Amino acid sequence: MRNTEIEAELEDMSSAEDFLAFFSIPYDAHVVNVSRLHILQRFHDYLENDKDGPRSGEAWFDYYTRHLSTAYQSFIGSSAQKEKVLKVFQDQKPVFVPLETMLK
User: Closest Cα partner for 70 from 85, 90, 51?
Assistant: First the structure.
């Protein structure tokens, strides 16, 4: 469940700082500089996985603010490698390449 009015405003934003400022979330510039893509991906993931929408009595703006704030907070004192938001940091199955194939 999503709010099309808020999402229309979000479409014009081009940086993590834009999102954080729009929702009036205070942030450390260093954390955002290091983890901007990860924060926005985590925010997106939270919205995609929460099919219920706002909690009882919670406004849509507060719903989006809560998810973005939670996404940002998860990178304070952590790292992209630890959080494994993007596919490149997720555990991959080991690949076996026989030595014979490399010698051909």
Answer: 85
Structural domain contains residue 96: no
Convert the pLDDT of each residue in 31-51 to its tens digit: 999 888 889 988 999 998 988
Residue 104 covered by a domain: no
**Displacement of CA 103 from its chain's centroid (Å):** 43
Q: What residue type is assigned to position 15 of the chain?
A: S
Count Cβ atoms below 10 Å from residue 7 Cβ, excluding itself: 12
Entry pTM: 0.74
Q: Give the CA dihedral 10, 37, 90, 102, nearest 10 degrees.
A: 120
Please tell me the total count of domains within the chain: 1
Domain boundaries, position 72:
4-79
Residues 6+ positions from 5 with CB-CB distance below 8 Å:
60
